Every structure is written in C-alpha cells, then in structure tokens.
Amino acid sequence: MHIDLSDRTAIVTGGSAGIGRGIATTLAESNARVVVADVTRDPPTDADRTTVERISAEGGDAEFVETDVADGDDVAELVETTVDTYGGLDVLVNNAGISHEGSVVETDPEEWQAVLDTNLTGVYNGAHHAVEYLKESPAPRIVNVASQLAFVAQRRKPAYVASKGGVVSLTRSLALDYADVPIQVNAVCPGVVETELTRDALADEQRREAFESQTPLPYLGTPADIGAMTTFLASDYARFVTGQSFVVDGGYLAQ
C-alpha cells in the first residue's frame, strides 16, 4: 500500500513539536503540502530545526502560520491564509493541546477553561472555519487528535481527560453531520509517546518503567506512529471510515 497525497493541502495545528511535528512530517513524506500552525514556530531546543525546515530539507512544501487555536479569529485567519496560499484545503488535523495536573479542587477555573479552550474548543474552531472550504475538496478529511485518556481516566488530570473525551464525542457528531458531503471525520488516540513534552517524565527511571510495564508491546510510541495513522486516515484508503476513534497505544487498552 502506497499513500500519495500529491495535490492535497493539510493543516496541522500544534505542528511545531512532538506529535504534531510527527504528523506534519509524515504527511509531507506522502507529498502533501503542509501548513504548520502553532503558537510558536520554534522547536523545543535550539539544536532542532523547525518543522517547516525539516520538511523543506527533504524537498517538501510547508508553510508556518502563527495560530492560537483557542482564538476563533486566529483559526479563521489560518484557514483563509491556507486557501489563499495553496488554492484550497483538503485535510484538517486538529492536534494542538495542553494539559494541567491537579485534582478538581486544585484546578482553578482559569486553568480548567484554558485546557478546554485549547483541546476541545480548538477542535470546534478548526471545524467551524474549515468545513465550507473542505466541501470544495474532492477528498476532504478531518482528523482530531484525542488520547487514550478519552477512554480511561488518570489521576489528577480532570480537565485533560474531560477535554479528550469531548474530542471523541465531537468527532462522532461531525462525522454524522457531514457524511453526506462526504467529509470523513475520525480521531487518533495516542498512548504514551516519546516527545519533548514527555521527556522529563520518561527520564525518571521509575516512571519510565511504570509506563513500559503497562504497555504490552516492548516499546513506547513515537510521533511517527501517530503520523502514520493520521496519514492513513487522510488518504483514499480510508474512504469508508468515518466517526471512529483509533487508539494507538501499544495495546494498553486491550488489557
């Protein structure tokens, strides 16, 4: 199976680092034109190239648009810039997300709202502003990045867990609303993935051993693993797939 996304344009929110960067680069490897949207262009460490630089170095076509997905006006401008630059939009990947640790009592209303605004309202904003342009695409796709924590809770992460559960439900709703176009709408739900955001936790030997012992496969995930599933869902091979949430977690939820 060879996936070729030539002549298709994709937006990847939260694409400057981690899972978003893995998704953006994997889409580009399949010849998609990629618009990387994030609150910052810069990679997590000075030694790293930006996502756009990585894609361009491999001969791909990518642009960066500074975007806060919690801001509807920002997202509207992102979509309009993409369409103006490339002539249309075919794939929207709603990946941007933040987290907060603390019980519901320890979580201030502002902290709760910030997580919901980015993780859930950000998906709404993306779909709200992109759907009319996606309708013009011959193969429109929306892929929302949720989490395995949409299905199993974790202590001290009420806002994050609630937001990702909402993403899964919103994915189903969008899939039904736009099935007649058709716009295929699906979610990818990562498990433990080695990224800049998890580096500190995984550097702790005890925590790493705990994550590894809970994952049936003998290794943790990488951003490229999430990119591969996302690229499949963006392709013609997923033409009969919509409203589904694909857990990519090394078998954790199979237990």
From TrEMBL:
<dbReference type="GO" id="GO:0016491">
    <property type="term" value="F:oxidoreductase activity"/>
</dbReference>
<comment type="similarity">
    <text>Belongs to the short-chain dehydrogenases/reductases (SDR) family.</text>
</comment>
<dbReference type="InterPro" id="IPR036291">
    <property type="entry name" value="NAD(P)-bd_dom_sf"/>
</dbReference>
<dbReference type="InterPro" id="IPR002347">
    <property type="entry name" value="SDR_fam"/>
</dbReference>
<dbReference type="GO" id="GO:0032787">
    <property type="term" value="P:monocarboxylic acid metabolic process"/>
</dbReference>
<dbReference type="InterPro" id="IPR050259">
    <property type="entry name" value="SDR"/>
</dbReference>
<keyword id="KW-0560">Oxidoreductase</keyword>
<protein>
    <submittedName>
        <fullName>SDR family NAD(P)-dependent oxidoreductase</fullName>
        <ecNumber>1.1.1.-</ecNumber>
    </submittedName>
</protein>
<dbReference type="InterPro" id="IPR020904">
    <property type="entry name" value="Sc_DH/Rdtase_CS"/>
</dbReference>
<dbReference type="Pfam" id="PF13561">
    <property type="entry name" value="adh_short_C2"/>
</dbReference>
